[in-house]
Amino acid sequence: MKNRKQIVVLTGAGISAESGLKTFRDGDGLWMGYNVQDVATPGAFKRNPQLVLDFYNERRRDVAAAKPNAAHFGLAELEKDFDVTIITQNIDDLHERAGSTNIIHLHGEIFTMRSVADENTIFEIRGDINVGDIAEDGYQLRPNIVWFEEAVPKMEDAVRVMRACDYFVVVGTSLQVYPAASLLHYAPSYLPKFIIDKKIPSVEKYPNLTLIEMPATEGVKELQQILLNR
Q1: What's this model's pTM, rounded to 2 decimal places?
Q2: If you write DSSP's letter for every residue of 109-166 in order, what string do you get?
């Protein structure tokens, strides 16, 4: 077991899109018909908290109705032969439901919530959050989501595992959202890197790349074959 190779996988919205969960980067910059500045920033929550809560209540229902796809299951299957850490930008739980056991959620989790005054005390939530729902500390509850303009506290954990891996894989992300996209910068030049996307982002400057220009469900299957034959 000590000789098992370490794989770190960064996943983005593209992997969950094949389960029917949409990303605002797929079209005109809107997320489910909303400008992200109106539903995914601290300022938006101050201006219209119920609108923001309603938006995430709907996202929670969407995720509950979605199912993991072949890409999620394929990454989970890699744990049979490798030590795998999933670093995901996604707020859904599809990796967990597919069977992956070591997951870092950079941008939070849709099925958890917290007080607006305490980011460290987390509660599970399966239903809706509304204005007037109060945490134990007396403050309004909000989704445990990292909004735009907020710090990404899990980045330190992500960088730490990046520095110890044997393979780095990117699945279904445009590499346009920072700081998550900067993880590729931390990968040593000698490290084998795999980019899986139906449209490969601009990564020409990085060495030791294997580009798999396929949707996530097909690309992860290709990745499995490559890694198992090494």
Answers
A1: 0.93
A2: EEEEEEETTEEEEEEE-SS---TT-B-TTSSBEEEEE--TTS--TTHHHHHHHHTT-S
